[in-house]
Amino acid sequence: MVFGRASKPSSKDFTGTSLYIWYDFFSCPQDMHGEAPLHRRQAINSIVSYISQCKYFVILCPALTHVDLHQELGQETWAERGWC
Question: Would the pTM count as exceeding 0.90?
Answer without folding.
Answer: no
